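Please, is this right?
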Amino acid sequence: MIAIDFTLLDWISLAWFAACWIGYTLFSGFRSAKRHRLQDVLHSNIEQWIEVLYQRDLRIVDTSVIANIERNATFFASSSLLIIAGLVTATGSTDKAITFLSDLPFVQHIDRQVWEVGILLMLLIFAYAFFTFTWCMRQWGFASILIGSAPLADRASRDEKAIQQHGDALSRVVWLAIYNFNLGLRAYYFSIALLTWFVHPVLFILTSTWVVAVLYRREFRSRTLKALLAGLNRAP
């Protein structure tokens, strides 16, 4: 068994990083019960969009919206694969990378274990992001199928109960796609924090905290959230 020879500060910074990521994910769910959250307000707008969807026979606009949003998940999934390939390549240049980083100003001396564990963690993060974004892509595909199977706008043949059930399923799938997209983006945010571990563990702790602050502000106090709330309040 290989012993990992980290300093106490390295272990503390890694534990703080994990606590920030997992803790914020849990906090976001609990906090949304008391305060408006960006994705939940967006879900209310999704429900209004679905109500309009059932009032028209042609759903070209709706399928175009789904296709445009799906491209974002596709882009990040492809980017994750490219980053994973780059990280795998970096494992073969460990000595050169350590020499390069150690010569930079304000960078602590990096030993081989710190580099290898850091690269391994980055690989795990982007592998998680890849699986999250590809699942998000599948969910957008499911949403497209549900739009294609939506009942027609002919009121004479409308089954209100069936429409309600169909609408609930569609809004739930769209919300889950957005939720998983957010999880994938969150992995990218925290991967930036992990990069600073190679500089200094204290900077790693500060950057992890800063990422949580950025996520909280954008999710609970952003101007985008206020705009969505204002639009929701004006809706008939």
Observations:
- The chain has eight helices and no strands.
- The chain has a mean pLDDT of 84.
- The helical segments are 8-31, 38-53, 60-90, 94-102, 112-148, 160-195, 201-220, 223-234.
- The radius of gyration is 22 Å.
